[in-house]
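Duplicate of #3305? Posting structure anyway:
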């Protein structure tokens, strides 16, 4: 595996890989866990060569968020990726990504609004901007993202359709199912912020979400299922709930009831220093 942090070196490393076959990109912010490794394995199954990017993107963190605290462990991440057979680790410094004079922002409307977009103003502009840059730098045939960030996946697909991207095309942006711990908690780099006691309490999130999914599927009105979910999280040790909503799985339009199309329950809640997000299919 080659570890590269300059754009010209990236281009030189990718040229022979592009000539030899399909290229997959797995964009990450590092602090890799089983969820990321599932993306890498899926990438290897879909392409001859795999590029993983590790870049803690300052533009997607708001003032007062956890940019400085975000876990950084490049040497350990590189070992994990080499063991998975990754060809190139693209790990630029912020100045390589956003040189002096950088002035462009990519903003996706509609699917970016509400949910994490409401709780974290500007977050999805930062995500769309860096992901479009990564797509242009690597020009992968296929790109893989975790379904844990459901709204992010919808934003990136919308951007690819709206901007007529061809490398990757919108249809080659692949969502990979969330990898969970034994108690159901979604794997996340931010789980590292939890104390042992908070980690135990955090299992209330998947538990309460599964109960809400079952209640809605069983005919309980959506509003009352969501209210019970919020109550269960606060009783289970969460400090606050940013949102708990039922949305159309694709358009992310809010749903007051199941409407015969795939729906998704999406939740963000805070415990200790962590803000955890998760989502589940409904119906
Ligand atoms: O999901 C993430 O880790 C990030 O939002 C991404 C897609 C790598 C963009 O910085």
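Output from current build:
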């Amino acid at each position: 595996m080659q570890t590269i942090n300059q754009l010209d070196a990236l281009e030189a490393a990718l040229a022979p890989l592009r000539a030899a076959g399909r290229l997959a990109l797995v964009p990450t912010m590092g602090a890799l866990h089983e969820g990321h490794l599932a993306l890498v394995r899926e990438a290897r199954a879909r392409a001859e060569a795999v590029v993983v990017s590790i870049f803690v993107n300052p533009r997607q963190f708001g003032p007062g968020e956890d940019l400085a605290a975000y876990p950084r462990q490049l040497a350990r991440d590189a070992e994990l990726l080499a063991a998975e057979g990754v060809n190139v680790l693209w790990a630029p410094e912020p100045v390589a990504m956003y040189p002096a004079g950088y002035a462009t922002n990519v903003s996706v409307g509609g699917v970016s609004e509400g949910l994490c977009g409401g709780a974290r103003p500007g977050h999805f502009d930062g995500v769309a901007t860096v992901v479009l840059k990564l797509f242009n730098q690597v020009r992968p045939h296929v790109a893989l993202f975790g379904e844990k960030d459901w709204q992010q996946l919808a934003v990136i697909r919308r951007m690819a359709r709206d901007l007529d991207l061809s490398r990757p095309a919108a249809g080659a942006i692949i969502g990979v199912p969330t990898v969970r711990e034994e108690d159901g908690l979604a794997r996340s780099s931010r789980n590292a912020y939890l104390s042992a006691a908070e980690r135990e309490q955090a299992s209330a999130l998947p538990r309460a979400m599964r109960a809400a999914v079952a209640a809605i599927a069983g005919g309980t009105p959506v509003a009352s299922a969501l209210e019970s979910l919020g109550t269960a999280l606060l009783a289970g040790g969460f400090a606050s709930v940013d949102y708990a909503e039922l949305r159309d799985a694709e358009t992310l339009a809010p749903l007051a009831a199941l409407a015969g199309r795939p729906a998704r329950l999406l939740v963000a809640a805070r415990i200790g220093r962590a803000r955890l997000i998760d989502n589940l299919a409904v119906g």
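Confirmed duplicate; merging threads. The first helix runs from residue 7 to 20. Residues 189-277 form a domain with the Pantoate--beta-alanine Ligase; Chain: A,domain 2 fold (CATH 3.30.1300.10).
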